[in-house]
Amino acid sequence: MLNPTINPIESNNQIDLTIQPAASGLCLRGSLSIPGDKSISHRALMLGALAQGETKIQGLLLGEDVISTANCLRSLGGEISDLTAPEILVKGQGLGQFQEPLDVLNAGNSGTTMRLMLGILAARDNHFFTLTGDRSLRSRPMSRVVKPLTQMGAEIWGRQNNNLAPLAIKGKKLRPIHYDSPVASAQVKSCILLAGLMSEGQTTVTEPAKSRDHSERMLKAFGADIHTDSETNSVTITGGNTLQGQSVIVPGDISSASFWLVAGSVVPDSELKLKDVGINPTRSGILDVLNLMGANITIEKERIVAGEPIADLWVRSSRLEGCEIAGELTLRCIDEIPIIVVAAALAKGTTIIKDAAELRIKECDRLSVMATQLSRMGAKITEHPDGLEIQGGHPLSGAEVASHSDHRIAMSLAVAALRASGKTTIEEATASNISYPNFFDSLQQVCCW
Ligand code: S3P
After folding, report:
1. Does the pTM exceed 0.90?
2. Same CATH fold, 38-249 and 5-36+251-448?
3. Is pLDDT at 8 greater than 80 in this prediction?
4. Cα separation of 32 and 34, whole Å?
5. Where are the domains of the chain?
């Protein structure tokens, strides 16, 4: 047999996937281009639509979340060319020019789309919008952005005291604020910065710790008047400045690369090259964690492309050991915790993950779901309110596991399946299309014997 069998089983419009690695001898080898960074792709489309002139985007992620952003912007009158072309053109309308859409805007599964769009819509004076999402997104808290936007003068209504979508938004001429965010969240920070961009005067957001800074970098590149104070974790934007269309090259998403970084580490005799991956320090916690665990990762050809640091990454198999992940390190790998749990289950010793309570309000409760699903495969995991304790080294066996329609859970369980004895079936595995279209094709491609 040349490859592990990856069998799609279609039922109820959901595709379940069976992975059956052969008893021994599987290794992963090859070179992969990693799909575009999801966070940067959303922002490139949004800033392009708000700028004057044309924005050209190369390497945009064609995942479902980014398509949701493009669809929302198009419903508001944004002109965005065919997303499947190698280069995408966005004809900007200028700040505050969005039209009232004829229908409800749908952010699908994407928290970034909903929270960042809220900042843009709230500032569109005297226009009315409704915004919804899928079942998962309709249960995720929006009060974290509704609260500051309301302080700026916006009117937003929704279930549970204006916390849950569907939301109705009446755009206003907003006033600038200084917001002390109780949570380190790039979505909250970016929402307020976008609203501030369209208000008169200076808007400042202060965070308890520094979240990813793609918005700051890209706003600056588009000509916004924006300043960061790293001592206080504050960002200040002066509203009213016109943005100018730019050329954006989107780096490969380190969150997507992380599945290969772990798979290449835990599957014996593997060697993978991951090309053009973003290594922005606010996102590169996975490299530090795997380094602490003893992984064999080499960073090559470090360079800056369109304002973001990128590099080629090599990963070779190694024996991983448990480690402790807490505080700022947890924040810098927050989206990678599901795949880190897989690495920890296969490592020697105990791994402790702390300060990760935010994971309970992602696309699903990622702490509880990873603990439950991986335990079904034989892992030993104890759940804590803000993290997990994983006793590594217990052999994994194939099982029926559920992705809970969460892209990162689906791909993490697929990596675990590569080291499990017997057959693993992952329910709703195609959730991976949210951030990594063709993930399972790439997996087939790099599997060898
Ligand atoms: C994102 C920010 C992060 C991350 C999410 C994408 C963004 O969430 O988990 O997947 O693009 O701004 P926070 O807002 O909690 O930082």
Report:
1. yes
2. yes
3. no
4. 6
5. 5-36+251-448, 38-249
Kindly state if the Cβ of 190 falls inside 6 Å of ligand 1.
yes
Helix segments in 267-334, DSSP class H: 285-292, 327-332
Q: Is 65 a catalytic site residue?
A: no
The residue to mutate among 334, 360, 436, having the most atoms of ligand 1 within 8 angstroms of its beta carbon, is 334
CATH hierarchy code of domain 38-249: 3.65.10.10
Q: Which residues contact residue 29 at a Cβ distance below 8 angstroms, ignoring those fewer than 6 apart? A: 270, 271, 272, 446, 448
pLDDT at 10 over 70: no
The pair of structure tokens assigned to 352 is 């402790």
| Tens of pLDDT, residues 412-448 | 999 999 999 999 999 999 999 999 999 999 999 999 9
Q: Is 76 helix (H, G, I), strand (E, B) or coil?
A: coil
Cα torsion 95, 110, 251, 445 to 10°: value is -150
The pLDDT score that the predictor gives to residue 347 is 98
Distance CA 70, CA 42 (A): 8
Contact 213, 282 (CB under 8 A): yes
Q: Please give the number of the atom of ligand 1 that sits closest to the Cα of 358.
A: 15
Adjacency order of strands within the sheet including 247-249: 79-80, 87-91, 54-58, 247-249
What are the angstrom distances between the C-alpha of 276 and each of 37, 85, 254?
11, 19, 10
Q: Whose CA is nearest to atom 15 of ligand 1?
A: 185
- Phi/psi of residue 421, nearest 5 degrees: -85, 135
The H or E element that residue 56 is part of is strand 54-58
Residue tagged active-site, from 37, 213, 335, 406: 335
Ligand 1 centre to CA of 331 (Å) is 10
CATH superfamily of 5-36+251-448: Enolpyruvate transferase domain (3.65.10.10)
Sheet harboring 202-206: ordered strands across?
Answer: 178-180, 202-206, 234-238, 225-229
Q: Is the CB of residue 39 below 6 angstroms from any atom belonging to ligand 1?
A: yes
